From TrEMBL:
Residues 184-311 form the GGDEF domain. Residues 27-144 form the Response regulatory domain. It catalyses: 2 GTP = 3',3'-c-di-GMP + 2 diphosphate. This is diguanylate cyclase. The chain holds residues 101 to 411 of 414 of the full protein. It is an enzyme of class 2 (transferase).
Length: 311
């Protein structure tokens, strides 16, 4: 019984500790002109290890928010000198969605409509003053967990499960955004592993997975300044904003060469791999036009004997 009890205590403590550790990286901004209220909120937050910021006006709060990108939660009173807390909330919502920065409005017991106005203006939650410590912390934690869960879901939706590289969907989003920003001097490449089926057939599917993960690491490392992704199966793609075609071709040739030098080792087996690459520079037709072109060059690289770059 004692053992069981101490196990539970241990589990509780480790959850608490990891939570406290995590909170250190989360900023919370308290916007309230009443010094006593502000001090009470920040004291409670600091006791739970949050990094706290204070502001007395909406304008001041917005400035702090601009400077501190790790602020994930804002607690705001409505009655502020100058523009109201609701006005500040509307400004926050112009810049960040509910799932990026949570806002908790402070409403008064005397003003029954205020909490509704906060929610309608984009607040995630509200607290009625005077609030108890426990309710305060429950609401804070619930809203922080909401933000963190969305972050987890986003990460899962954007990355490839096997290799951890950005996935095809994320690639299209990022490449299209980059293309809109600088619509000149962009390159796109498709990388396809040569005779990959043979690796699966000879050494087994687990070895195929291992090889994909290793090559993905090299792709992520080599192209960390660019936009790399697992395009599907044994294909990777890279979008390079702001680069000349001949420079890109050089980089891909170096990558191809480096890869052929790697000795892959899996469960006592040793083998080498190579890739074929098609590279294209920007032309009309956007990302899908570039992909079609890169695929044609990739096909040429395969036909011309593999382990080569065509452009
Ligand atoms: P080529 O040089 O013409 O590209 O030949 P290839 O064998 O690489 O091409 P093919 O398209 O014939 O085969 C690709 C293989 O990749 C078939 C498929 O089973 C394997 N594959 C795709 N995704 C995965 C994966 O996630 N894990 C493993 N182990 N194999 C995969
Ligand atoms: Mg393929
Ligand atoms: Mg193929
Ligand atoms: Mg292949």
């Amino acid at each position: 019984y004692i053992l069981k009890e101490s196990e539970q205590v241990y589990e509780y403590l480790s959850v608490l500790l990891s939570r406290l550790y995590k909170n250190k990286h989360i900023g919370v901004l308290v916007v309230d002109n009443a010094r006593v209220h502000r001090a009470r909120s920040t004291a409670l937050l600091r006791r739970h290890n949050f990094m706290t910021y204070e502001a007395t006006t909406g304008q001041h709060g917005l400035e702090v928010l601009t400077r501190q990108s790790h602020i994930k939660l804002v607690i705001v009173a409505n009655d502020l000198p100058g523009p109201s807390g609701i006005k500040m909330l509307s400004e926050v919502r112009q810049r960040a969605k509910k799932e990026d920065i949570a806002v908790i409005g402070l409403s008064d017991r005397g003003d029954t409509g205020l909490s509704a106005r906060f929610i309608k203006s984009g607040a995630n939650d509200f607290l009625t003053q005077p609030y108890g410590q426990e309710e305060f912390l429950c609401r804070i934690m619930q809203n922080i967990e909401y933000i963190e869960n969305i972050e987890l879901i986003r990460r899962a939706a954007n990355s490839d499960f096997l290799t951890g590289l950005p996935n095809r969907r994320h690639f299209f989003e990022r490449a299209a955004a980059a293309l809109q920003l600088i619509p000149v001097c962009q390159c796109l490449a498709l990388i396809d592993i040569d005779h990959f089926k043979k690796i699966n057939d000879t050494y087994g599917h687990d070895c195929g997975d291992y090889t994909l993960r290793e090559i993905a690491k090299l792709v992520a490392d080599t192209f960390k300044q660019h936009i790399p992704a697992r395009f599907g199966g044994e294909e990777f793609c890279v979008f390079m904003p702001n680069i000349k075609l001949h420079t890109a071709v050089q980089i891909f040739n170096d990558f191809r060469q480096a890869l052929t030098d790697i000795e892959f080792k899996f469960e006592g087996q040793t083998f080498h791999c190579s890739v074929s690459i098609g590279v294209t520079a920007i032309e009309h037709g956007g990302i899908s036009g570039m992909l079609r072109k890169a695929d044609e060059y990739l096909y040429q690289a395969k036909n011309n004997g593999r382990n080569r770059v065509e452009h």
